[in-house]
Write a structure and sequence with these properties.
Layout: H1 8-17, E1 21-25, H2 29-38, E2 42-45, H3 49-52, H4 64-77, E3 82-86, H5 96-109, E4 114-116, H6 124-132, E5 137-142, H7 148-151, H8 161-177, E6 181-185, H9 189-198, E7 203-206, E8 214-217, H10 219-222, H11 240-256, H12 271-275
Helix pairs in contact: 2-4, 4-5, 5-6, 8-9
Bound molecules: 5,10-methenyl-6,7,8-trihydrofolic acid, 3-methyl-2-oxobutanoic acid (KIV) and magnesium ion.
5,10-methenyl-6,7,8-trihydrofolic acid is lined by residues 48, 51-52, 59, 143, 145, 154-156, 186, 218, 220-221, 226, 229, 231-233.
Family: Belongs to the PanB family.
EC number: 2.1.2.11
Protein name: 3-methyl-2-oxobutanoate hydroxymethyltransferase
Length: 278
């Protein structure tokens, strides 16, 4: 571990100092290097890799092997920020033993420094086993996409009194189980603020308002690389899909009209060698 690497302690300290934590998703080494160099605090190898990179229509089909493959690539590209690997659906629900073994694979086989898993009270035995084994854990409450079929769609969570109270209780239990941070996805801003004040560990919001201790976003959403996907909480800081499309159209046109490759892109042999060719 290098000396200036962001650690779970750095992330906890940021909350006590009132410094806002920044987190983005990464799925490959090239993006990991760009985001790391830009100074983001944490990278999440999200199981959203299923939607964003693998063409699935949910996160449910994503496997351990796929997550390990992407986590390895991200860790090769990231040298300063803290890398968190998302545990895929069914890698931590069956038994605590299986959960612990799978969490351990991320630290052993990829270089990730922490894992993230979705859920409240029901996952606290797994969170305890992991943290007892020295594996830092990030929790995830609110809209938990691995439960999309049970939730009945991608909807804001914790809107009524009972649901809000349950979420606050789950948050307390995840903290007590040893998690060092907690993602809150698609919960009312007022509830996310309350949870953030009630916990000593930092909350990291996505669609959870400005009162969280940090924010996370899917990098491809902030760059506008996925035309058509625009939930209310997404801010597209650029519209790169139009840039990508324009660049590729130019390439196609220049190749077809023999403008590319131009002489400066061609590799030549020496004249005396050329003369000896028949
Ligand atoms: N590219 C990408 N970005 C994400 O943020 C993301 C993924 N993929 N895949 C995994 C999950 C799925 N996510 C989603 C998907 C859809 C909505 C959505 O349609 N939200 C509605 C909420 C409607 C309501 O209840 O009011 C919205 O309009 O914001 C939200 C989060 C977040 N995650
Ligand atoms: C949206 C974030 C929190 C996530 O879990 C993912 O990208 O998989
Ligand atoms: Mg996820």
């Amino acid at each position: 571990m290098s000396n200036n690497r962001i650690t779970t302690a750095t992330i906890r300290e940021k909350k006590s100092k009132g410094e806002v934590i920044t987190m983005l998703t990464a799925y490959d080494a090239a993006f990991a290097r760009l985001l790391d160099d830009a100074g983001v605090d944490m990278l999440l190898v999200g199981d959203s890799v299923g939607n964003v990179m693998l063409g699935y229509d949910s996160t449910l089909p994503v496997t351990m092997e796929e997550m390990l493959h992407h986590a390895r690539a991200v860790c090769r590209g990231a040298s300063h920020c803290l890398v968190v690997a998302d545990m895929p659906f069914m890698s931590y629900q069956v038994s605590v033993e299986e959960a612990l073994r799978n969490a351990g694979r991320f630290l052993k086989e990829t270089g990730a420094q922490a894992v993230k898993l979705e859920g409240g009270k029901e996952v606290t035995p797994a969170v305890k086993a992991m943290t007892s084994a020295g594996i830092p854990v990030v929790g995830h409450l609110g809209l938990t996409p691995q439960s999309v079929h049970q939730l009945g769609g991608f909807k804001v969570q914790g809107k009524d009194v009972a649901a809000a109270q349950r979420l606050l209780e789950d948050a307390r239990m995840i903290e007590a189980a040893g998690a060092f941070a907690l993602v809150l996805e698609c919960v009312p801003a007022q509830l996310a603020s309350k949870v953030s004040q009630a916990l000593s560990i930092p909350t990291i919001g996505i669609g959870a308002g400005n009162g969280c201790d940090g924010q996370v976003l899917v990098t491809h959403d902030l760059l506008g690389l996925l035309p058509g996907f625009k939930p209310k909480f997404v801010k597209a800081y650029r519209t790169l899909h139009t840039e990508v499309s324009a660049a590729v159209r130019e390439y196609i046109e220049e190749v077809r009209t023999r403008q590319y490759p131009a002489p400066e892109h061609s590799l030549n042999m020496a004249d005396d060698v050329l003369e000896k060719l028949y």
